[in-house]
User: Fold this.
Amino acid sequence: MGDVLAGNHAVWEIDSDSVLIRFERGIRTPRLWSALGRRHVPVEALAEVTVTAGKRDTLVLRAVPRPGADPLTEVAAGQLKEALDPYRLVLPAERAPRARELAEELAAAVRATGVSTEPAERFLVEVPEPPLQLKAHDARAVFDGHTVSLRWSRTGASSTKWKAGDRHYPLSELCGVTWRSPEAPGGHLRLLLRDAQDGVAPPPDQDPAAVLFALGHGAVHESLPFAAAVLAALRTRTPVASVPGTSDDRMRHLGELHGAGLLTDAEYAALRDRFATEA
Assistant:
């Protein structure tokens, strides 16, 4: 292929084995896109490619990532507004013939991989690399690639968090991360601890492993790449085949990894069956 499609605030360079998405920098460009800058998406990371009619004489080209292929979409968990979707390109309607032709070529390349209908076994799309910082309502969070540090705000943090003191969580103590969009009520980022006791998690404002979002704090373009970087680092350091302990411990730990997004459905099923056989 080797073709280029220029749309609203983004340019897609489509090759036979990948799509390079370059986002424009400007006041009209979604801030998430500006923060990402560019994304290199291997064809094997995609599930499908679609072309649909848009608003006001436009055409929408959309690539759909496979489950488990992109840490950004995994941690977003369907919460991104359509206008912020980094896999969506809006084009003028007059480019429809060429756009449809390229979309079909790309879709054919996706089908040719033979894996488009399966969850990815590892992350295939990169996210911003640490060090990263996030200014939340009640803390400043820093991720240096090895440890997530939470430094509480004098004006925003609850007494519970103040009493707990600033927190430092090495990746070895974490099993996942959840993100709730700041554009919805209750927005927050929560680190999931490996040794956390079973039961209902405390509210985010009372949890020393969580930070709150509010107006001007924890915006999507800052908090989502931060959460995705933590998830990607966790997945990289978690050997899929090395779940320790007795059979019961292994099965419980396996469920925790799967629930935290560190194992795909396919990995979870394979390891579950293996451990059941070994029991």
About this structure: The mean pLDDT is 90.
